[in-house]
Amino acid sequence: MFHGSMVALVTPMRDGGDLDQEALERLVEFHLDNGTDAIVAVGTTGESATLDEHEHCEVIRQVVRATRGRAPVIAGTGANSTREAIELTRCAMQAGADACLLVTPYYNKPTQEGLYLHHKAVAEAVPIPQILYNVPGRSACDMLPETVERLASVSNIVGIKEATGDVARVRDILARCGERMDVYSGDDATALEAMFAGAKGVISVTANVAPRGMHDLCVAALAGNRQQAQAIDDGLQVLHKELFLESNPIPVKWSLYAMGLIPAGIRLPLTVLAERYHDAMRRALSQAGVSVER
Fold it and tell me: N or C: which end of the chain has fewer CB within 10 A?
């Protein structure tokens, strides 16, 4: 249903942590001007864990309004409460989002049966297309391929963002249910190999700061042009790595601040990128051809 470079958009904030609507609109235009294929609003990179329900829904509405149908909007609506996930997903559908992205419930550590019933309940309650999101390194919960296969039978579960970085896992899911759902990489460093294995694109942190490069990488990879895709990816590998010098989205928000696109704000318990990492981050941006102003 979706393909290519899908940015896991940051949520711009002022120094005190208040949302910055003008900066959000600038970011949307920046992505539309640079080829981003879909915009993911209020995913985990968008600090969904620290936005209240009103803020969460308002950011989705703002992104839908700013995009004006020029690219699909995928709303992050996952939660570790099934009831809350249903409410957020319903809000996203009412706001006009094209699909929702639901991270596995974090901290609770549900069983595989619990994961199946959680996602099935959300999908049955809200008839919007839904994409599963498996990121065990952040959620302490791993949705196994056999559970994904069970969920592929739910008609409006249309894909999965697989963020383990394990290309063998991508191949396993595709073999089980690739005809019934799309698979997207959730790991920039291995996205190229995931696409050559059959993934339809990447939901990307790197695309926040290098949208044209990530778009061009996906175009080449999805067309089967390995030489061109590899050359682009080689230029982005340092950036893929350094954007995780501290917990995401700390480095990417600082990078966008250095590029002059957003204020420096980030919401506690996250903090601004430590000064000792600034030079390494600037070098990675420069190597990827990204200009900074600060």
Answer: C
